[in-house]
Task: inverse folding
């Protein structure tokens, strides 16, 4: 009996500064109801879904940004979303800014089952951008100012009769992200992202944002025999154009569904989890083919180190 998860990628268009959490939750619930109507077991929302992408601005007093964060999950603002999930018997994954009771700030994603209970929580590991104001920029990308990197690593949870993992935005660009979950047998990775088209450090990448987005998620899916669900908050948000192109990607690396707009848009796919085995038990049979004894640099080195030409064995 094959295991099928019908998953919805619920892309958001822009969330402007003027949009309240109530406005946004109404949009999320509309997408959740659409997903339930289309038979989804699970619907995935973007990174930092409840507010505009506030790291695009510098606030000298960081406490002035506190209102962008949730101090509990479910927070009062999303209680209705949790209730809707329970009423419609649909699970979901939601990205939000987390402010802990002891003052720590994380870029966080939560996994909620069909009863509306929190199954798991993931905090972003790879924090891109910069940590101090760079006034010369057309917009800031101050994630390293507003968020601490997680020291908890990548979890894989048993949910929806599957092994489900999470990653957030920049995480998807690092092969280590997928492999850490691949080595736990992950079958579906849920990812939200906010990706400005314009990359200030190297504008030559702007035109390639869509290509790079698909490239890394397709590669990660294929090389680890897992489904990947990538969900954007896209469109022009407070004057910054962000990538949409949300996608559902099979363990083969094939894109099975992709959004066509930069607005609120739901795409759905019925994902056969046993497809994962076609790769996990052949090409990417890790236990059979991997050589961790030769991969020491992966865990011992942060940056590049090269000690010159290796000696040629006689
Ligand atoms: N955003 C971006 C991402 O990794 C970025 C950072 C922007 C990288 C543009 C490259 C180009 O998709 C987040 N939130 O990580």
Result:
């Amino acid at each position: 009996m094959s295991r099928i998860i019908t998953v919805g990628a619920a892309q958001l268009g822009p969330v402007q500064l003027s949009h309240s959490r109530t406005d946004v939750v109404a949009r999320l619930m509309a997408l959740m109801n659409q997903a339930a109507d289309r038979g989804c077991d699970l619907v995935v929302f973007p990174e930092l879904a409840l507010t505009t992408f506030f790291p695009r601005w510098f606030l000298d007093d960081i406490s002035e940004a506190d209102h962008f964060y949730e101090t509990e999950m479910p927070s009062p603002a999303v209680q209705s979303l949790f209730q809707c999930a329970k009423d419609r018997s649909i699970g979901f994954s939601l990205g939000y800014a987390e402010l802990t009771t002891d003052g720590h700030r994380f870029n966080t994603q939560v996994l909620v089952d069909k009863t509306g209970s929190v199954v798991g929580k993931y905090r972003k590991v790879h924090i891109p951008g910069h940590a101090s104001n760079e006034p010369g920029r057309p917009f800031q990308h101050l994630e390293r100012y507003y968020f601490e990197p997680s020291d908890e690593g990548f979890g894989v949870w048993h949910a929806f009769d599957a092994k489900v993992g999470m990653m957030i935005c920049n995480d998807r660009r690092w092969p280590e992200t997928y492999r850490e979950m691949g080595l736990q047998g992950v079958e579906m990775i849920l990812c939200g992202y906010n990706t400005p088209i314009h990359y200030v450090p190297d504008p030559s990448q702007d035109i390639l944002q869509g290509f790079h987005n698909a490239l890394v998620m397709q590669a990660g899916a294929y090389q680890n025999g897992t489904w990947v669900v990538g969900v954007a908050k896209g469109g022009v948000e407070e004057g910054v154009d962000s990538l949409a192109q949300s996608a559902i990607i099979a363990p083969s690396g094939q894109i099975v569904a992709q959004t066509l707009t930069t607005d609120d848009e739901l795409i759905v796919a019925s994902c056969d989890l046993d497809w994962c085995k076609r790769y996990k038990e052949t090409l990417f049979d890790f236990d059979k083919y991997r050589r961790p004894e030769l991969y020491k640099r992966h865990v011992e080195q942060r940056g590049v180190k090269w000690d010159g030409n290796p000696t040629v064995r006689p």
